[in-house]
Amino acid sequence: MKNKANIVEKVKYIHGNQNLRPEDICFDYDNITDDGLIEFGMQPNFDVDAVFGTHVNTQENDDTLRAYAYLNVQEEDILDYIKVIIWDDEGGNEYRYHLNPEEKIAVLSAMKKYCSKIQNVDAVWIQKVLNAANSPKEKEFQYIVQFVMEACFDQELCYDQLRALWTAYCLHHNLIVDTKAYDYDARRLWQSVKETEEDTAFWRDFGSFDMFLCEYLV
What are the residue ranges spanned by the domains of the chain? Predict the structure, then answer.
């Protein structure tokens, strides 16, 4: 945890040898961020090193960890990651933990439970988001996101596989190019690509990525 810059230039994804379990998830506060997200602070009352792959609970350091999950109010959706901040003697370092479909549903359920006890978030709305996250459409989208995180985009085969997955996803769920629903999911996928790839030889921006995705759909 030493000899690191206070602010990392590119957020890194981390993962331990254990998935986040429903019984691990408990929130102790919420906050509305400047960009319209609802931030939920997690109580780290579980083995954070096993889940996040960190080394906080060791005798070698006195680092502290905080974790946050987010709801996007405008899009009525949960973000696909948990933000993890580790504080050491040199400052705070930000990482992300990607939520698989089961973990995402567990986080939403915990949000609903938390929101039932407070007044500033509508628990009925949380249920609506929970239902959407558990839908076949969202599960298929998360499968594509997982492919993006594991693929190596310096190989042409991975490009072709991604486009095939996206084309099938759009046909399965009747997503039409240049509609609001299509653009929303395309931008979500582009965000995942940007966060996992330092650079790509094939896409320079969302526009080129968008053209790549829709080749077989227009």
Answer: 12-133, 136-213
Q: 64 and 55 in contact (C-beta within 8 Å)?
A: no
18: DSSP letter: S
* In contact, 108 and 126? CB cutoff 8 Å: yes
pLDDT at 10: 62
Distance between CA atoms of residues 45 and 14, nearest Å: 18
Contact 189, 167 (CB under 8 A): no
CB 13 within 8 A of CB 195: yes
pTM equals 0.65
Kindly state the helix (H) or strand (E) to which residue 154 belongs, with its residue range: none
**pLDDT computed for residue 193 by the predictor:** 86
**Residues of the chain below pLDDT 70:** 1-10, 118-126, 130, 197-201
Give the residue among 85, 173, 168, 97 at the shortest CA–CA distance from 132. 173
